[in-house]
Batch of 2 targets.
Target 1
Amino acid sequence: MRRRGWLTLPLAGWLALAGSVSADESRAFPAPEPGSYALPPLGVAADGEVLQTDGRATTLRALRAGKVVLLAFSYAGCTDATEGCPLATAVFHRVGRMLADDTEARARLRVLTLSFDPLRDTPEAMARFAAGVARDGLDWHFLTTASPSALDPILADYGQALVRERDAEGRETGAIAHVLRVFLIDTTGRIRNEYSAAFLDPDLVVADVRTLLLEQPAP
Amino acid sequence: MKIRVALSGGCAAVAMLLCAAAIRADETCMSPYMAKIVGQEDFIYVWTLGVEGLGDGRDKLVTVDANPASPGYGKVVHSLSVDGRNEAHHSGLTDDRRHLWAGGLDSSRIFVFDIHSDPARPKLARTIDDFAKSSGGVVGPHTHYALPGRMLLTGLSNDRDRGGRTALVEYTNDGRYLATHWMPTDEDLRGARKSAGAADGYGYDARALPRLNALITSSFTGHANYMRRLPELMADADAMKRFGNTVVVWNLHARKPMQVLDVPGAPLEIRCAWGGTRDWCFTSTALTSKLWLIHADAKGVWQASAVADIGDPASVPLPVDISISADDTRLWVDSFMDGKARLFDISDPHHPVQIYEKVIGKQLNMVSQSWDGKRVYFTSSLLANWDKTGDDDEQFLRAFRFDGKQLTPAFAIDFTKEKLGRPHQMRFGSYALYGQTRPGPAGDLAAR
């Protein structure tokens, strides 16, 4: 999909981007009808202890709470709007707008943004981060972990590889190179799709969310 | 996010490229979902067919040091043999580039190598032995193509008649079977719209244009043909009718075939443009020696157009591999019979123009180029039973520097003299992909 004219922006500028993530008329084939295709389970969504923006500890399993979940790994210092973490945030924002009239879908979908930079992204930092994001009615939680040792098993379970950038003297610069991965998790805790930046098309994400919701009608 | 990791010690620059629309260019022939090496590659991993009586006779992953700054430059630094001879052919990296999948066209076994723990010394992480059974009868795993968190494999054949009808098969990155998607046939088009010719159901390569939600596949021939000796096969008129004549355009997200295009003469490798407004891919036909453009027309309908001859088609040069430059303006085309590499200017993809050619060896198959196009690597082997014989059976990796006008030799490895076998597909490796640096002369493992 084409996203022209995006620049590397400070995080406060995300919302301006969100409107740019739109249905793409250049796509050769439209998003398929929900339920018309298969999303075979890729594996079990791993658990792990995380911290919420108020500092309280919980687990990913508890946060899933029988909902369809979109889980993105991110970090607050990421500034590459075209290809990185802000893209995931902007796409989620767009997903929220697309589901604005679908009360049931919004009620059954939860979005989790989990930092992979626990040393800088404290709960307080994640609270500031979250405050700059319009959630558009989405049940959206911003999370971090208590330490790298709490985070690493989660990253390993989800196959999220990172490279912490270093300068010529070998000091960490704060930038973290990674292949952006967003996970779609069904109501029973199975990973049903993964998206990289190229695949993170809001139309396709919404089609996938609705496909999972069709599998298990609301009680 | 795209971060170029320039590590101390002058190691490779690496881009964790995350958006196909933004990336610029076998680095130039990889899945757009994958981290890319945009600087100097450290290694070339060569998936190599074993030759009976040569060395240990087994298929092997050969690691070649490709960094001119290294004391081992141009040398084989590691060789890892697998069990038996499997008709080692193609290989592909996972999206996180931590593992290399390599298939055997005869045994249908898939070997998954860990290349991130120590990029200089790959390890065999797992072997998938039940490809045919899991997939419901697909054999001959060919292309191993990275999608987010999974691998998409093309088959060449099936276990019922060993003909060309086959499927796409998906696995998770950790080697668990996910799904099989059969190619459309006249009997079951699976919702696709076909052109005038037959929907043959054959398969070969696959490439995605993710921003268009499109996947393109090509078609070759089945196990019964590709395991026969080439002269015998070419003399069998009936067998020669059993080659693929189609390219299929799929809805990538739904994995549903949408259009079957007529591309006669066994269209093989597919290379798609990287540019965000270029809605096209190239393929070459082995038997008719033509370049074909697969493109969306103004109405969004996909078309296949023969846009150039490769050499003299009447002499059957047998074009095999192609490689597109990062800026979508150049296309290398290797042909097996005459051992030539030809370079086409594809600035106007509807009218490619050959601008250079060079004989690389007595036979020639694969070509891989660095992201900047300044280094081009060639290998010799096509298939065990199709390679030439006697003195013409040269088996090599030959590396060249390319200045935009001509190739200049950099180094060469004689795979027969080294008792390695028949070199086929090349994939690049780099320490910087994993935040590592090359061990220094004093054994410095800093940042590893």
Target 2
Amino acid sequence: MNLSRTWAIAKKEFFHIYRDPRSLGLVILMPALLMLLFGYAVTLDVKKVSMAVLDRDRSQGSLNFIQRFSASPYFNLRYSVQSEKEIKRLIDQGEVKMGLVLPWDFSKTIKAEKIVPIQVLIDGADANTANIILGYAQAIARQYTQEKTILKVSRMGVTNLNLPVDVRPRVWFNEDLESKNYFVPGLVAVIISIIGVLLTGQVIVREWEKGTMELLISTPVRKGELMIGKLFPYFFLGLLDLSLAVLMGKWVFQVPLRGSIALLFALSCIYIFVALALGLTISIFARTQLLANQMAMVIGFLPTFLLSGFTFVIANMPIWLQIITYGVAPRYYVTILKDVFLKGVGFSFLWRETLVLIVIAAAGLAVAVKSFKKELR
Amino acid sequence: MLVTAFRIYRVSSIKYQASRLHILLRQMMTAFVVEVKDLVKKFDSFVAVDHIHFQVERGEIFGFLGPNGAGKSTTIRMLCGLLLPTSGKGKVAGFDIMMEPEKIKQAIGYMSQRFSLYDDLTVIENLHFFGGIYGLSGSLQKEKEKEVLEMIGLQELQDRITRTLDVGSKQRLALGCAILHEPSILFLDEPTSGVDPISRRSFWSLIQQMGEKGVTTFVTTHYMDEAEYCGRLALIYQGRVIALGTPSELKQETLSQGVLEVDCDPLMHALDLLQKERWVSESAVFGDGLHVIGKEGVDLEWEVKALFQKHEILLKRMGWIRASLEDVFVSLIEKEGKQ
């Protein structure tokens, strides 16, 4: 390995990046855009569910029940309607996610100490959200029932009624249960995957397409020197994006970074190599830049997005898909990111993931160097 | 040769110089810098290069002349270690083209047919890159860059982005990048295609300068006038070398009796008539006249006069001229086609 040759290649790649405003724009803007999108726009939190109410009773009792919804931060009472038809229309139009129907004898039945059925209509198109809404509605109804029961029992003369179980939940790691705390750490993996695989996916195939490779392979440059030299600048771009993402996460979105920053960067460097090696391999096999781009999206980006545990919890996947995720490098990196960011764990908890990433990076580079031929094709 | 070796040994950058010395020593042991025997290259069933055989001496400008698709580029690529031959033997700079292609690469400079420098880099950045790739560094590299820039006449343009250069300057820069590391052999694949005549001439004077320094040049071309600059020529057609020699030898051997230039009216009618005659081996329009080549032992002047008289064609002027390489080339290919 000749360092001056490697350095010559690296310098040349720096010039390419520096003179190509598009790739520079991609490096700076794409991470910022993704961060803003996932930090602000994409949220799994269900709040202010818009709802319509059909109150057939119009009594003090029914009003009191409805108020419990409208006073809750989780619901937003937008329409008071006169018929079930209207509720159907509003749900169809997407105006409301939930409709509540109280029967004409709501108060009367309660007073008569009988069970009163109320109807809750939920837009189930988004199953996850529907489930959460259902949970909220049930909780409100349950509390209402509980209060009514206690009232009734105390009227009967029992003064100190104790309910046997009192749940006092305490959520760890993401105390406020905020989506951004869940998304931002994983997003770092997505950003590095995109930048690493997409940009390095071009480095070899571009030289073939432009015809410069013919001259390059007529020189005594070695394959290893060519690969390392080409990856060098992109490694720095990866570090740049990593810093950008961490800074934005910490200062713009106030995501807690509880673990050591040094550990985060050290382990991230390994993952940058994984992404670069994958991009390089794609670049060697792809015959056109367009194909390389598409391969980078399918092989590099999609698994990071779908199978790494970034958005979808791996434990909830069918077993065969869970097995596949073990072969997906970002899975290990997302685990590292979430653990360091939110749990603040040390290396002693993460050495397995680290080891797997090192093996994948080394194997990827070996495959890249092996499959590159210094011969015209 | 020994003087060069010594001079090179003196200067800095030990590792680089050691590799240069190794190459020089290897070359001193062989008589020919390029030696090819029964070289074959097949692409599937298509035979691109068909058992070719030739040698190139040190310091020679060796031309590879042939139409497009004749196998010129394929041959040059095999010699540069870019393509593995299907069979046959070959040595370049004393290294085997089958076994040691990577060693060949340090000893040669190559200019591919398609412009293949980095067009988003400046002139000096391109030179610097190729210098670095060939293991140059430090003050030696600076010195060489300056020398080469001067030689190719691009000092003023050294900070220009390569994309913005004219074709002639681009080609000179490509040559500059190929000679920076003082290769002993230069392989130039159609170096002047698409270049205007004046730039072409200055390009060839650079190649001749290199030749005076003892650099061997192996050049492919399909420009006949350029072929005249070559010390020796191989005519390649359909993957085979059909003639080899100095330009004057080729003219002498194939068209010893010369070419009859005929000025007449009507031109195309005369051409039709001539092409039907048995005693004409070849006839073609050149400028506003005809070039006629006769078969062996034919009194061409007499025959033409008789033919024109018979068909009432006005003979304005007639005279013998020396055959050009183009005449030689066309007649050789016609002969080849008939076989």
